[in-house]
Amino acid sequence: MECEICGKPVPEHNPIRAKIEGSVMVVCKECSKLGTIQKAPPKPRYVQQKNKQQKNAPRRNYPRKDEPSEELIEDFDIQVRKARESKNWSREQLGKKINERVSVITRIETGKMTPDVKLTKKLEKALNITLLEEVNNVDLNQFINSSSGERTLGNIMKIKRK
User: Fold this and answer.
1) Of 157, 158, 162, 145, whose CA–CA distance to 7 is shortest?
2) Tens digit of pLDDT for each residue in 12-54?
3) Which of 1, 39, 81, 103 is most buried, taking the most CB atoms under 10 A from its CB?
4) Distances (CA, A) of 126 to 47, 75, 104, 129, 156
5) How would DSSP label each residue in the chain?
6) Largest Cα–Cα separation, the chain
7) Which residues on adjacent β-strands are paired with residue 36?
8) What is the pTM of this model?
9) In what order do the strands lie in the sheet with 16-20?
């Protein structure tokens, strides 16, 4: 077993679980100082039996349903304002066309509010612009630790120490 942050070996008979920035992870003694040490919850018997059955089953990589396939562009606020101004519409006129309040349009254009997908699609249609872009999935297999073949946070990102 390896530390989920730096990849150092962790004793399997006594792993250290620490809560670091809201996530409970198995870490080495050195990395446990970055958070608070947690007690390991006892596993119910039915979960252990289910896991034994699943070990023999082949793993499949299905796309996760809860991951978005599109995301809002970075400068959406500027694009909305420019598109509205190019059509010579006031914020009130745009609000009426998409059935939203003027305060919502103002907050979007100033960057104080991020529109949800439904509102973004209404803005795209009314202003004839593209605000959503396809998300490229990152292949995390390129970050696998070569010594053990496991993926750790330390492989993916650099740790900033104070």
Assistant:
1) 145
2) 877 888 888 888 888 888 888 888 888 766 666 665 555 555 5
3) 81
4) 51, 18, 15, 8, 40
5) -B-TTT--B--TTS-EEEEETTEEEEE-TTGGGGSEEEPPPPPPHHHHHHHHHHHTSPP--PPPTTS-SEEE-TTHHHHHHHHHHHTT--HHHHHHHHT--HHHHHHHHTTS----HHHHHHHHHHHT---EEEPPPP-GGGG--TTT----HHHHSPPP--
6) 69
7) 19
8) 0.47
9) 23-27, 16-20, 36-38
Give the dihedral of Cα atoms 18, 20, 24, 25; nearest 10 deg: -70
Burial zone of 28 (CB within 10 Å; 0-12 exposed, 13-18 middle, 19+ buried)? buried
Model pLDDT, residue 157: 61
Domain ranges, ordered by start, for the chain: 1-41+138-157, 70-134
